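Continuing the batch. This is chain 6 of the set; chains 1 through 5 are on the previous pages. Same settings as before, nothing changed between runs. Recording input and output for traceability.
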Amino acid sequence: MVWSEVWLLIAPPLIGGVIGYFTNDLAITMLFRPYRPIYVFKRRLPLTPGLIPSNQARLAQRVADTIMGSLLTPEELQNLARRLLQTERIQQAIQWLLGLALDQIQARNQARTAEVVGNVLQDLAGESLPRLLRVWARRETFLKPQLDQVFDQVLLEFQLSPEQASQVADWLLTSVLPPDVVRRAIVDFLTDRNIQVIDEIFRSRTSGTYWVVANLFGIRNALMRLRAVCLDERELSNVRIAELIEALALGDRIQEWLLNLSLQNLPVSTVRALRTTVRDTVREYIRTLGPDLLKGLSQTVNWQQLATQLLNRLQTSQAVTESLEPVSEELALILERYLERDLESLVAQIIPILNIDQVIIERVKNTAPQDVELAIQGIVRSELQAIVTLGGVLGFVIGGMQSVILFYR
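Output for chain 6:
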């Protein structure tokens, strides 16, 4: 066998292997390159740019459809939300937020915070609460249980002690009804008309000894003389009135009357009517004058100082710190019940808002072809190299089969 015949047998496998290797390598390279179209004489060469760069928009749409249709389905998003929004995680997140808010209150400029809180409190006490109070007072059941309880437990059972009755009696006799006040009351009462009316009544409606005294002597002159004495002799009149008060023991009588003063001694119907009257009076007062009273009180309060004291108290309050955990737990349970009921509709509303498929499309379309090539090769570099090698092996095998056929021929 000469060298020319040996070369004819060796050449087909070698040439086939080289062709198969570099053909597959060229095909894989043409998936990504060239990155941009190539023009010759203002005509774009075919297969430029590469397969993936020229179809990157359709690739982005396919990727988004695949992800949203198979991976991020509404059911999978609901399951993902359930795993993320477990009660323990929600509680930890809420507790962290509450702690962060408390730290922010402590760290921020308290003057600004106190100003904001003070304005809120002033608006609540001066504007919102009066309007609410005016609306609430129109209801028939407004404060009815509370006022009835106060009436039954306080007013109905209220009774003065002997010491209190003695103090009230002394106050009445010394401050409310001193002798000079009694004297002036007598003078104001004994007008000419009142004296005439009293005299006529005694003359016409008395009998026996009183009739004789009233018609023979009359009481007109006696009453006019009493008035004249009270007007002309003030000091003497005051002394006589004081002696009369002491002689009649009015202080003891008033004290005894006060000790016996109790709503429980009244008839049941009277007590019920009095309770209704007290309730209606309080409600009417609150409805008419309550809002103005609250507004007036709100204008007298230094809300900035009150807000500063409140914030300082919150900063140092151990109760606030200890309440973060139970409060966050309760909020987490409330949120969990809400999610169990409305998670499906909530996810259905969130998906259009997030617009995940459009985000995927934009991200894939805006990715540079070089980055796409690097990403794919980074993932399947060994597989792509295996395809190139396989092309060379197949070319070598096919060339070897041709050499065998030539050898037998």
